[in-house]
Design brief:
By secondary structure, this protein is an alpha+beta fold. The chain has five helices and three strands, in the order ααβααββα.
């Protein structure tokens, strides 16, 4: 996925909060829903956007789907921002 999709995914506060939750470890969709006052369908859509941007991964175990952070994409964004800012090269 490109930078544009990643930035769009990061633009929403609910999606950013989902990423904050996942930095502590993997969670099921139901566990994620429990942290918000929006519908399960809404959280499902947010998870789909994050997955399409490759910011999270999912894994089915039985009847549950667990989500986890994909740190490699976040690292790429941080490197790009550091380069844009000019850190480290003078």
């Amino acid at each position: 996925m490109g930078l544009q999709e990643t930035m769009r995914a990061l633009s929403d506060p609910i999606r950013r909060e989902i990423l904050n939750l996942l930095k502590e470890g993997r969670l099921s969709a139901g566990e994620i829903v429990d942290h918000f006052e929006v519908t399960g369908a809404s959280i499902s859509r947010h998870l789909s956007v994050l997955k399409d941007a490759d910011l999270i991964r999912d894994k089915r175990e039985g009847k549950f789907i667990y989500y986890e952070l994909n740190a490699s994409v976040l690292e790429e964004i941080m490197l790009w921002i550091a380069e844009l800012k000019g850190d480290g090269e003078k």
